Amino acid sequence: MAVNLLELTKGYITKEVGYIISALTEESTGDVQTALLGTLPGLIGAIMNKASTSGGVHELIGLMNLNNEDYVLKDLAGVLSDPVKSKDLITMGLSLLPMLLDTDLKIVTDSISASTGLKSYSVSNILSISAPIVLSVVGKQVKEKSIDPLKLTTLLVAQKEHILKYLPKDLSALWDFKGLEELNKNLQRNPLSEHHLENKPVSGKKKLGYLLVAVLFLAAIIWGYKKLNRGEETVVVEDFPVEAEGAKKSGKGPADSSPGRLVTRKLPKDIELNIPEHGTEAKLLNFIQDSSRTVDKNVWIDFDRIVFEPNMAELNTESEEQVNNIAEIMRAYPNVNIKIGGYTDNTGDAAANLSLSKNRADAVKKGIAKKNIKASRVQSEGYGIDHPIESNDTEEGRAKNRRIAINVTRK
């Protein structure tokens, strides 16, 4: 069975890596997931397109020989968590992207930023992190079998069926990879070493205009994300949870800091939780365990991984982990009671918003109660448009006001 590079690459984008990238970019885990799900197929496709000429193969082999894939892949979370190493990785990615995409990186990042709402520097960082990972996965496969043009192109040709389905129609037509298949057939008849490719120029026939590539690569990101999320294939990045509909961490609310990397917290009754070190569960535990902090009806902690469909009040499966963690905390501390609050922005009918916020708070309460926690220990209330933590005059502010929060009523 042929190696599936997309499947291999997504194996390195673990939940922990997702949290760390979220912290590095100061974007929500949901936004990071969207960007990653789309960029991986696009980057693999870009490498395949690059390998459609002998000159492109030579450039790729040169990059792989210079790259230390074990450094990137062996402890990706560790590299990203280290300020110096993560900066070096991003710098490396920034130098790789123009070579892989054959276009101005700023055009791509600005286009993606405008389409997704992510900050341009966040998009740049996500792309820059993704590029060395993808190149390292490809290089690892080729180097394991001694690197040469035939083996590289054979590996990439085998990716065609896995990648084309995740590319938009226009880019699939442009990147039909026929040049790659033709070069691979020629190499099978007359294998060349990397040295023989050294002075062969890159064909100009398939050079693209900067803007065209930027637009199509942007389409690849959006298309790839949608296709990977349809459940048609098992090739998906491991789901690191996303926040409530449109929500992002507030600069004023308790979910101000990024979640951080996963840590193990040991609780009473032999309960252990693997949770983000700065996430909702950690903040709740810190409040409960700090004897100097008293119950306060004005102290709320925003959930960071509770998910609802737009205008719906049913919890998505992505919410299960955080709901279960809250139940485990309450099991470890039986004296603790909590209240769940639901909030909306000021868009639409105020009465409808109040009802939606209440239904969502009730859904979280019911989810916790289903984990064998007495319902009497969990209250819920919807506040609708009241108590905004940001101005509703901007989309960013409205997104932050759409949230679910938790308040400790007894400890």
Protein described:
The chain is of the alpha+beta class and 411 residues long. The longest helix has 24 residues, at 120-143. Residues 194-216 and 225-257 have low confidence and may be disordered. α4 packs across α9. It has helices spanning 5-12, 15-25, 29-50, 54-66, 69-73, 76-81, 83-101, 105-116, 120-143, 149-157, 160-163, 169-174, 178-189, 194-197, 210-228, 280-289, 320-332, 350-369, 395-401; strands spanning 262-267, 271-276, 301-302, 337-343, 378-382, 403-410. Helices cover 55% and strands 8% of the residues.
Proportion in helices? 40-55%
Cα end-to-end separation: 56 Å
Strand percentage: 5-15%
Structural class by SSE content: alpha+beta
Q: If you compute it from the alpha carbons, what radius of gyration comes out, rounded to the nearest whole angstrom? A: 24 Å
The total of beta strands comes to: 6
Q: What gross morphology would you assign?
A: elongated
The number of helical segments is: 19
Q: How are the strands of the biggest sheet laid out side by side? A: 3-6-4-5
